[in-house]
Amino acid sequence: MGIKKGDIYNQQLLETRIGRQLNPEGGEDISSLYMNDGYLFFVVDPTETSINVDTINFEMRITEGSQATIRDISIAGNDRTNEHVIRRELRTYPGNKFSREDLIRSQREIATLGFFDQEKIGIQPKPHPEDGTVDIDYTVVEKSSDQLSLSAGFGGGINFYGNVGILFNNFSIRNIFKPKFWDPLPVGDGQKFSINYSSNGAYYNSLNTSFTEPWLGGHRPNALTVNVIYSKYSAAAVGTDPNLSFLRMVGGGVAMSKRIKWPDDFFVLTYGLYYNNYRLVNYALVPNFTDGYSNNFYGKVVLSRNSIDRPTYPMGGSNISFTFQFTPPYSAFTGIDYTNESAANKYKWIEYHKYRFTGDWYQRLVGNFVLRFVTKYGFLGYYNSGIGFSPFERFQLGGDGLSGYSYFIGRDIISQRGYEVYGQDATIFNKYSLELRYPFSLAPTATIYGLIFTDAANAWGDFKDYNPFQLNRDAGVGVRIFLPMFGMLGLDYGVGFDRYNPAGGVTKFGDMAKFTFMLGFEPE
């Protein structure tokens, strides 16, 4: 109840604690506790037994009823998505006890699919007191979940730049030869297929494609992801032979994801193997390594927990992940002292161990105001001091993470609003972000919200130089627009406070500010 003898009488609090009114702060109430344990027919009636001057005495008269068992579950409104894609995400099963908590979780899982209007997911229990059972009717409204990405720009040393990509979020590989399921490609089984191509002609080309089956075998939520990537960037002067200086990468990988139930069932464990082959021709990725081949064969393990309540405009929950990426320690088995070896020999088979942590929290404040806090860390280590840090898999900090810098290969690109790129070969970084968001529209045709943000971040070349309190700060405003066909469109205006430098002539407000554009996704 949360109400003690001697408290000031509060009718609204009483109604909230017994479950007659929605608790705006969330949390349990008496009705929820009963309904989470199957007591669908539970009733509590607070009755005034006496009033003495300024004191009211209440008696809680409870009718528990019997526990209800789920009988039938029906789903309606899924015109494009096969019913089994929805049904396998539900936490309510025929024969189980009724649970209000399971209904709420099922609603979240349906919204997380991204195929339906999250504001119009309907759940209607239909109780049958005569036999102690209940039917549950789910209704959904389909929305377009496929995304087309088109962009073009100038700058970054490569002049004109263009990108085209398409993401099919509800793909169906088994319906490829069934034309009636094409819209415009076969849909309905919840698989993901994407292909993205970027180019500025002969000086930069990149092709990336991937496929994900979220329920491999159809019986368990074990996801299989396969991807292939090719990319080539030329550093030769425009108008000259692009093969005079370039960095080329070709590779791919395969990964499995498995939902785990401990500590709770929001956790996902992902593990995979990947291989990338790099070729450098007169390209100074790091000092003393300008020509040769490098092989990057690595494993990656990701432990994540995602409890965000809705994908487009989260109002609660969190998304936390820890990533461990590693190669075999090849140098430990060769017996060679690599201190005086050439860069081509040191980096023929790259070796490293790498760690990433990301924490993303959302808290609803008042109404639809949402506070978001994000923290990110990254560290790259090495096995052999004679080899040192790998020239690949380092961190690049600053800039928008998109235009002009997306052609860099072998880097984790971490953006920072209000700053140009200021760390390209870092081995450790920190980043913190705080945002206050408010939605202008939550319609499925266009989700629009504004935000006020502040960031603090920095990157270092070596752990011995690391100072967690030496951070570059910024603040600003932005807007996000989610369109079903194009995904996210974003614009931020940030002011980098630590860009202020009287000695360098940076003293004006405009000199410290920067616009950041986003298309399709939000950079790290």
Description:
Helix content is 7%, strand content 47%. The model has no long low-confidence stretch (mean pLDDT 86).
Order of helices and strands: HHEEEHHEEEEEEEEEEEHEEEEEEEEEE
Please bin the fraction of helical residues: under 10%
Using the coordinates above, name the CATH class of the domain at 69-139.
Answer: Alpha Beta
Q: Extract low-pLDDT stretches.
A: none
Beta-strand residue percentage: over 45%
Strand order of the largest sheet: 6-7-8-9-10-11-12-13-14-15-16-20-21-22-23-24
What is the count of helical runs?
5
Q: Could you tell me how far the N terminus lies from the C terminus, measured between alpha carbons in angstroms?
A: 44 Å
CATH superfamily of the domain at 69-139: membrane protein fhac
Mean pLDDT: 86
Strand elements, count: 24
Radius of gyration: 28 Å
Tell the overall outline: globular
Any idea what the CATH architecture of the domain at 69-139 is?
A: Roll
Largest sheet: 16 strands, antiparallel
Structural class: mainly beta
Indicate the CATH topology of the domain at 69-139: Ubiquitin-like (UB roll)
